[in-house]
Specification:
With 114 residues, the chain is α+β, with helices and mostly antiparallel strands. It is 21% helix and 22% strand. A hairpin with a 3-residue loop joins strand 1 and strand 2. The protein is globular. The structure holds zinc ion.
Amino acid sequence: MPDDCLFCRMASGEIPVDKVHEDDLVFAIRDINPQAPTHVLVIPVRHVASAAELAATDAELLARLFTVAADIARRDGLDGGWRLVTNVGPDGGQSVAHLHVHLLGGRRMSWPPG
Ligand SMILES: [Zn+2]
């Protein structure tokens, strides 16, 4: 993993952060600049640069990202629905070069996302 990776440093505990979920494969934190009433980042513990780096052998990790997001959505009472987004690369709007999915909910989502 890159030594300067923000999410790796959070995963290891080097940077203390309030985790809303943590298990062997993923952890989740609330976005510091929320774009919706619920805005949670679900993040692999292991360094994966982006969704473009996922392989077929990452099936369990990919499933965990989605099932944890769904659990948090239920916990936050997002009964009307929610959105999962992952950004890849600068043109995709990826701000941290460590894979993360954004769980957004608590308001009606527009398309395309603003
Ligand atoms: Zn990382």
